Amino acid sequence: MFDDLRDLYQEVILDHGRKPRNFRRLEDADRSARGDNPMCGDRLELFLKLAPDGRIADAAFQGRGCAISTASASLLTETVKGKTAAEAHALSDSFRELAMTGTCPHCQAALEEEMERLQPLSGVHEFPSRVKCATLAWHTLNAALDGAKEASSE
Amino acid sequence: MFDDLRDLYQEVILDHGRKPRNFRRLEDADRSARGDNPMCGDRLELFLKLAPDGRIADAAFQGRGCAISTASASLLTETVKGKTAAEAHALSDSFRELAMTGTCPHCQAALEEEMERLQPLSGVHEFPSRVKCATLAWHTLNAALDGAKEASSE
Amino acid sequence: MSFDVERVRRDFPILSQKIRGKDLVFLDSGASAQKPRAVIDAMVRCMEERYANVHRGAYFLSEAATEAYEAARLATARFLNAPDPRGIVFAKNSTEAINLVAHSWGRHMLRPGQAVLFSELEHHANIVPWHLLKEDKGVELRVVRVTDSGEIDLEDLAAKLEDGKVGLVAIAHMSNVLGTVAPAERIARMAHAAGAKVLFDGSQAAVHRRVDLQALDADFYVFTGHKLYGPTGIGVLAAKLEHLERMPPFLGGGDMISSVTLERSEWAPPPAKFEAGTPPIVEAVGLHAAIDYVTAIGMEAIEAHERHLVDRAMRRLTDIEGVTLLGRAQDRGGVFAMATDYAHAHDLATLLDRAGIAVRAGRHCAEPLHTRFGVEGGTVRASFGLYTTEAEVDYLAEALTKAREFFA
Amino acid sequence: MSFDVERVRRDFPILSQKIRGKDLVFLDSGASAQKPRAVIDAMVRCMEERYANVHRGAYFLSEAATEAYEAARLATARFLNAPDPRGIVFAKNSTEAINLVAHSWGRHMLRPGQAVLFSELEHHANIVPWHLLKEDKGVELRVVRVTDSGEIDLEDLAAKLEDGKVGLVAIAHMSNVLGTVAPAERIARMAHAAGAKVLFDGSQAAVHRRVDLQALDADFYVFTGHKLYGPTGIGVLAAKLEHLERMPPFLGGGDMISSVTLERSEWAPPPAKFEAGTPPIVEAVGLHAAIDYVTAIGMEAIEAHERHLVDRAMRRLTDIEGVTLLGRAQDRGGVFAMATDYAHAHDLATLLDRAGIAVRAGRHCAEPLHTRFGVEGGTVRASFGLYTTEAEVDYLAEALTKAREFFA
Ligand SMILES: Cc1ncc(COP(=O)(O)O)c(C=O)c1O
Ligand SMILES: Cc1ncc(COP(=O)(O)O)c(C=O)c1O
Q: Can chain D be said to touch chain C, i.e. do they have 3 or more Cβ pairs within 8 angstroms?
């Protein structure tokens, strides 16, 4: 009945959806932002700890959402660690292109490995109403990096 | 080009439209009411003078309107003279049926002569948007008889 | 007349569509219903043969359009058994109709110290306008509780009416989440006895039951065209004429005035006073066709068909592992909101979509109700229309069972 | 591309109708335009193949409908060369769009002591909302004079802006009675220089000319679907995003909030904030098709065609005995209001109807303008669309001549 959905709900997504990594508050976060998708009620809060050189030393999140938004946030916290703000922004842009189109031909070679890890989320591009689930955490990342307090993936 | 319109604009209508009878204020009117057709901007004021026995001793009107509403008001002032309030109401009901349907099979025999005079206005029933032009004065007559101050043929 | 659902389905062109290669199983009629050919055709005919702006036009097409528009008003009045067609105002949807009441009646007829009362199960359309009114005018808002089985708590209602300060009771005639049908006549009597007016949000109810405004004695009743198998862009406010006569206008513009100078305006009598600007002409014609369509089938036949579906759904959807139904009201219609222990509503809806099943996921514009039932994350909602079949209900049950395996 | 009016006419099914045995000569497009097959078909296709409620639906039909609805917004933004599609709000008509600005912006952004300025030639839709605002909030209203030739008196405008108290200038981009096209860029510059915002009522203008919101630098611009060969039930408010962001919502309900509790609501960002309830989905699809239709023909080609018609009408209608044209603005579109010395407007319209000619009689929702020109009894108005032909203009002129004989 649902076999062709294995493209969207790959095992890694279901796994991160069920057991999100870095799912906690960072009490000593340097940056944080709340993300809100009013259309489906997903909400999350993202926390970033910065190293003295400005790189992201730690990332974590809390909130509620569907498997896709949770997995996306979980993978985000894993892939942004060690990145500069500029690199994180670039990764965010690349991811959003991936989610919307299924590929990212212009993506920076430097981010190849990270994009590989995010690849399982690319199936979402066939589901327009779900793209926002996948990108919510990344909008929130941008907001946190820019010092804004709220993001919306509407 | 307009030949078939002679049904609606019979000579008597054009004549009463151009030269309305009893087109004046009755300064000593016992009853008066204003009629308003906001949809086309027609407005008139109807005046009644009552005899000691309650019959309509005199009727007159003022205002502006199209040929149909003017002719209808003009014919009204001529036909209601000498009527009791009840007769005038009955005439008004009959006229409105005539204007809406083109005939008045149930009309009182007693009013036959008056209905005959009003017959030229029966063509209006084929023009739904113009029926209100023809009935405005009669709505106003009812209002005046009932002691109301305003009528609307909307 | 016996109700033949297969014949009814043939009236709806969209139902023969394949979705991603699967038969469409459309279970989102509560959000918006599909349109029968009769409605589509009526709109097309209006635009191809009888279209012009209404009112003021002294020519054939405008007269024809005006007649069609006013005929829709008469048909709507008959459909609701409204006491007077002049109490029927066409708005753009239910939401605008309720806002009209809040703005015009609420701002001008409620006295300081009075309260507006609604319930926990209301759609946002029957909550947010009162929030806006409160901000603007400072009226008090009171919220009637909903019982665990999903019914309006009438004891709580009685208690909250007791001090006589409630000016308006605004309640959903049928819940768009729980399916609960409110005991409207009783609520209206309670409200009136306490000196309050009553508004029913009939957006859901009017689709599934015969509504009798005279029996209800409702002061205000609203519904929306697109849920009644009619077009988008049209909604109905049915009000007692005495209220409309006293209410100031809401929107200002053409057709709602009797005279305008540069300094001031005078209002036309209702319903014109509340229909500023060019009305939804083609939509009124479509709504009329929709009313004729359901009336020809018969609201009783529709209700009976849906009752079968509801009974079957109550049997089939209640024993699926991991699926919890919200609400179990005695008197209910074909709307089922479900929470599962195995998937987020959104993921489940996507899954069902792949099986051809259209359901809605989220909080269905009833966030407080989801909070009340502890399902902030949302539910999946299946809602039935007159074209829904027992086989579709069974297929949904089967899919919910298989979905559990998928996410396991 | 050369403009072939005969080919264009074949796109409009209604134009081949006979009216009382005569060819239809539809000269009431200013009240509402006829619909091309492309618009009708797009609406039918939406209802037969791709219909569901928009937003929140995680299934195929709802995604398709949402995409179509949002595509209409993008198309509208492109059509107006708006700076940002999020500044495009779908309302039910122009009237609602202006009321939205009056309610939400007017009530909350105008400071005490500020004034709203409009002109003598406005449609009631751009007068009555300001009357209502004045009643509610006590703002001052200022009215700019119209010259005898029917143009906005710019000296008077300058004088009335001078004290810097005007908060909003609200002007018809094109008059629905005189045909006058206002010098909108200049007015916008004058308004801005005086510290005022500017709203253009583009209900007529957007149909006949290319509108460039970025060039105009308009704060608010409204138009209405049904005059642009699109459906009834949809209108457009195009606003600068910065205004929409600061404005409180107008109607409350579903889809315009980001969260609702029983006590309070939080608003969604624009445009959602201003689109409470189920929007005009099918109508948006129809409007999109209408925009595509006129864009494919080309607004410049349409304007050029109509300029020919206007020139011919100016020649043919000005030398008929007993007929007086209202207004002779330099820059004008195809709208001609006429008073005669031989018949009341209503009688004349009925007469013309018998010749197959559809014109409007009355004051065209512009009572103050009729008072200004001393024609309280109303005028007969002929208004052109892209399907209007020179032969129709000639036929009208001939009918007006013969009408004089009829009433003589
Ligand atoms: C100049 C002008 N403004 C506003 C309107 C109102 O448009 P609508 O009736 O669609 O709201 C019209 C048309 O009636 C108009 O011509
Ligand atoms: C109970 C209820 N009230 C109000 C509404 C709002 O209807 P609309 O969106 O047509 O204004 C709905 C549907 O969305 C509803 O189910």
A: yes
Terminal-residue alpha carbon distance, chain A: 31
Q: What's the rounded mean pLDDT across residues D74-89?
A: 98
Q: What is the CATH number of the domain that holds A137?
A: 3.90.1010.10
pLDDT at C103 over 90: yes
CA neighbor of C283 nearest in space, from C12, C35, C109: C35
pLDDT at B41 over 80: no
Ligand lying nearest the CA atom of residue D252: 2
Q: Which pLDDT band holds residue B39 (cuts at 50, 70, 90)?
A: low
The closest alpha carbon to D77, from D334, D295, D355, D305, belongs to D295
Domain count, chain B: 1
Please give the backbone phi and psi of residue C91, each rounded to the nearest 5 degrees, phi first.
Answer: -115, -170
Q: Is residue A62 part of a domain?
A: yes
D277 CA closest ligand 2 atom index = 9
C-beta atoms of D362 and B64 within 8 A: no
pLDDT tens digits, one per residue of D193-230: 999 999 999 999 999 999 999 999 999 999 999 999 99
CA of D103 to the centre of ligand 1 (A): 18
Q: What domains can be seen in chain C, in order of their start residue?
A: 5-29+298-407 (3.90.1150.10), 40-295 (3.40.640.10)
Q: Ligand 1 pocket: which of D98, D123, D178 to mutate (most atoms <8 Å of CB)?
A: D123
Does residue A154 lie within any of the structural domains?
Answer: no
User: Touching check for A41 and chain C: CB below 8 Å?
Assistant: yes
Q: pLDDT tens for residues C374-407?
A: 998 899 999 999 999 999 999 999 999 999 999 8
Partner residue facing B41 (CB), from D377, D402, D407? D377
CA distances from C66 to C124, C159, C278, D31 (A): 34, 48, 11, 13
> Cβ of B1 and D361 within 8 Å?
no
| Mean pLDDT (whole number) for C173-192 | 98
In this structure, which residue's CA is closest to atom 12 in ligand 1?
Answer: D203
Q: Please tell me the distance from the alpha carbon of residue A62 to that of residue A73, in angstroms, as a whole number.
A: 9
Predicted confidence at residue B149, as pLDDT, reads: 67
Instruction: Give the residue whose CA is nearest to atom 12 of ligand 2.
Output: C203
Look up the domain containing B21 and give its range: 2-148
Q: Is the pLDDT of residue B152 over 70?
A: no
- Is residue B153 domain-resident? no
pLDDT digits (tens, 9 = 90+) for D115-136: 999 999 999 999 999 999 999 9
User: What is the per-residue pLDDT for B36?
Assistant: 84
Q: Is D365 one of the annotated active-site residues of the chain?
A: yes
pLDDT tier for residue A39 given thresholds of 50, 70 and 90: low
Q: Which residues of chain D from 257 to 276 reach within 8 Å of chain C, CB to CB? A: 257, 259-265, 276
Containing D15, the helix (H) or strand (E) segment is: none
DSSP C332: B
- CA-based radius of gyration for chain B: 14
Rounded to the nearest whole angstrom, what is the distance from the C-alpha of residue D171 to the centroid of ligand 1?
12
Taking 80 as the threshold, does the pLDDT of residue C190 lie above it?
yes
Tell me how far apart the alpha carbons of residues C363 and C381 are, in angstroms, rounded to a whole number: 9
Q: What is the mean pLDDT of chain B?
A: 90
Q: Which two tokens stand for residue D140?
A: 């001052």
B154: in domain: no
- Residue B14: closest C-alpha in chain D: D407
Tell me the two tokens of residue C336: 């089922």
| CA nearest neighbour of D231 among D32, D63, D59, D79 | D32
Cβ within 8 Å, pair C354-A4: yes
Q: Is the CB of D208 under 6 A from ligand 1?
A: no
Task: Please provide the size of chain A in residues.
Answer: 154
**Residue B53 near residue B60, CB atoms below 8 Å:** no
Q: Both tokens of residue B26?
A: 């009755």
Model confidence over A88-109: pLDDT tens digits?
999 999 999 999 999 988 788 8
Q: How far is C228 from chain D (nearest CA, A)?
A: 13
